[in-house]
Amino acid sequence: MNQYETVIVLTPLLSEEIAKEALAKYSKIITDSGAEIVQEDNWGLRKLAYPIEKKASGFFHLTEYKSTGEVISKLELELKRDERVLRFLTIRLDRHAVAYNEKKRSGAFNKKPKTEAAV
After folding, report:
1. Any bridge partners for residue 65, and if so which?
2. In the prediction, which pLDDT does 114 show?
């Protein structure tokens, strides 16, 4: 089993409830296919680097999961069919990216450096 990340950009015209419903649909497709979701991260409404379909923003969502290649083709087919999806990108993570994501989840990068009190 390989580890993958999929970033989905939904149209900004959706309400937050409908966006969550659409994302739940894709999470269900992943889990029903026998894959294991490692982490989901909802980035919310963000500005796009360039307009897509005359829209300047979109709802971003990142899902990290372990699965086989067949799950990817099934998920991407559903993403292509859904008109609420502006863009999506799926990548296979190598061992370095997996280690980096594990460190990021554990909070290794968010720790403030210790400062000694001046006497």
Report:
1. 4, 37
2. 67
Q: What is the DSSP code (8-state) at residue 30?
A: H
Residue with tokens 């450096």: 113
Q: Which amino acid is at 17?
A: E
What is the tally of helices (H) and strands (E) in the chain? 3, 4
Beginning with the edge strand found earlier in the chain, give each strand of the sheet holding 85-93 in spatial order: 36-52, 55-67, 2-10, 85-93
Question: What's the CA gap between 46 and 56, in Å, rounded?
Answer: 9
> What architecture (CATH level 2) is domain 2-106?
2-Layer Sandwich (3.30)
pLDDT tens for each residue of the chain, 119 residues long: 899 999 999 999 988 899 999 999 999 999 999 999 999 999 999 999 999 999 999 999 999 999 988 999 999 999 999 999 999 999 999 999 999 999 988 887 777 666 665 55
Question: How many Cβ atoms sit within 10 Å of the Cβ of residue 71?
Answer: 22
Residue 77: its H or E element:
helix 69-81
